[in-house]
Write a structure and sequence with these properties.
The chain is mainly alpha-helical. Helices cover about 75% and strands about 0% of the residues. It contains twelve helices and no strands. The two termini are about 45 Å apart.
């Protein structure tokens, strides 16, 4: 993920350099009519500036709703961003976001529809490529096609020092104790609130698998205390009731 982000930032810097070069060339073209050239460039920059401001405001609102775990409102914001972008390849990051949010709301049909609209090419930004293949592998995994998920990861995602959730699930599918160890190891490093909750939920499931219902209940409670329409939070609330009764009986 970090490598993909770094590459994306480099591409954005290259785009900025191209943009500045184009502006400079326009000045050269209008050298004899300098005032007209400056006026045209000023208008272009004002339009670009307002476009970026509007895009940034909507994007920040979308991320705010994600932080608040209100994915329905974030979906509304992402659809606005999706409409704002006119270049098809630039819409892909919003297709991926929409797909992920719908998946977390347990709306599989909508999630797959947006993911299937993504077209990977040599012009695709590295971060988009990474997120697309990661999401695709996750869908394959939860659809029971674990070998396909492994193949997608091996062929398209470069290994990093810390395993992600999907890699842990695939590597330790039949070893829940090691799964718990790996999940406990990555939990303190999580800064993204939503992803941290997913790790906590995975830990609850893993502890339940090894029969440690007390620890499973502890992590389910951490997830269940959040108010959200996210599907795994709803399941966690049900699990808290189920395991509370089981612990009383024991």
């Amino acid at each position: 993920m970090r490598k993909a982000l770094v590459k994306t930032y480099i591409y954005e810097l290259i785009f900025l350099c191209i943009y500045l070069t184009v502006m400079n060339k326009l000045l050269e073209i209008f050298e004899e009519k300098f005032i007209l050239g400056v006026f045209i460039i000023l208008i272009i920059n004002i339009v670009v500036f307002f476009y970026l401001i509007i895009y940034l405001i909507i994007s920040l609102r979308s991320q705010y709703h994600v932080y608040k775990l209100n994915l329905s409102k974030s979906i509304v914001m992402e659809k606005k961003l999706y409409k704002i972008k006119k270049i098809n390849i630039m819409k892909d990051i919003h297709r991926i976001n929409l797909s992920a949010y719908y998946w977390l709301l347990d709306k599989e049909e909508e999630a797959l529809r947006y993911l299937n609209e993504v077209r990977i090419s040599r012009f695709t930004l590295p971060i988009v490529r990474y997120c697309y293949y990661m999401n695709l592998a996750e869908y394959k995994y939860y659809d029971g096609k674990k070998e396909e998920a492994r193949k997608i990861l091996d062929e398209n995602i470069k290994k990093e020092s810390n395993k992600n959730l999907l890699e842990i699930f695939l590597d330790y599918e039949d070893n829940p104790k090691q799964k718990v160890f790996e999940l406990e190891k990555i939990l303190p490093k999580q800064r993204n609130r939503l992803y941290k909750m997913q790790v906590e939920n995975a830990l609850a499931i893993a502890y339940e698998e090894i029969g440690n219902f007390e620890k499973a209940l502890e992590f389910y409670k951490k997830v269940a205390e959040k108010e959200s329409e996210i599907y795994f939070i709803k399941v966690a609330k049900e699990k808290v009731l189920e395991l509370s009764l089981k612990n009383k009986e024991m």
